[in-house]
Amino acid sequence: MSKIIVIGSSNTDLIAKVETFPKAGETIKGVSYLQTMGGKGANQALAAHRLGGEVKFISCLGKDPNGLNAMSYYRKEGLDASLSLVVEDTPSGVALIWVDKKGENSIVIIPGANDKLSSDYILQIEKEIVEADLILLQMEIPYDTVKTVCGIAYKNNKRVLLNVAPARKLDRELIKMIDILVVNETEAETIAEEGIAHIGEEKIMDKLLNLGAKTVVLTLGKKGSIVKNDQLNLRVPAFTVETVDTTAAGDTFCGALAAELSKGHNWNEALEFASAAAAICVTKMGAQPSIPTETDVRRFLKMKTTNH
Ligand code: RIB
């Protein structure tokens, strides 16, 4: 099995379940409240770990109760986050999340220490990147840091999976260093500067490939996902489940994809596995509490095959 390193954010998620999102100037009564661990980096690292990958997670936390709590939680989960940076002067990242009755969310992140995960620190731990086989990144740490990691990976022929979440534009130099670009519709449109409604899914993926990514994975929610590169064009349907909370579904998908690819599975198997993991994730509240284990996903896939 190849080694995965995830470099990204860690947040404490403060989640309010509501009937409908509040409007500007409105005070509403929520349905329930939950505080759990989150952050796109941490969610993807934990997903890859629970789903059978060999994972190291590198993040930046404050020396505060949320940071200490995060470290002890990762230890309990058996996720190696020991190389994470701890800073004295900045609080750990938090996310304020509303989840409505349809399971859709609305998230505000206060990055705090996540913004202190610097290129300087990455250079200090360069050896870890060189020793990994697959590097998993998102966009909740500084852009320059993501670029520094990609540069090291590229120089050393390491595979990079970049999930462009939250959505932002990427420069060509960065895209050319990416092996697997994982995007949802909004993220694809932001990078390609085109609307899917206007040019279609295939053409937007071609545009991202032309910008330099070697493989593009487009996630389409209930419509499944597509993977495309110069040898492959494959669509995998999503599983139908009852949605409670979509938070971290994309993160679970990315972590699962990385884990499954690191075990040597082909694209078809990896995408089906990742779709199943994301489907299980949306049936529960919260980011990390809803990330399934490998056993959960294999059982789910078996059940779905038997039902067909
Ligand atoms: O993708 C979901 C995550 O986004 C949440 O856990 C929250 O912390 C934000 O980073």
Please give the count of helices: 12
The major β-sheet equals: 8 strands, mixed
Helical proportion, percent range = 25-40%
Enumerate the distinct ligands.
alpha-D-ribofuranose
Write down the domain tally.
1
Rounded mean pLDDT score: 97
The CATH topology: UDP-N-acetylmuramoyl-L-alanine:D-glutamate ligase
How far the N terminus sits from the C terminus, by CA atoms, comes to: 31 Å
Got a strand count? 14
Beta percentage is: 15-25%
Q: What structural class do helix, strand and pairing data support? A: alpha/beta
Q: Strand arrangement, largest sheet?
A: 4-1-9-10-11-12-13-14
Q: CATH H level: which superfamily? A: Ribokinase
Indicate the CATH architecture.
3-Layer(aba) Sandwich
Shape: globular
Radius of gyration: 18 Å
The stretches of 5 or more residues where confidence is low (pLDDT under 50) are none
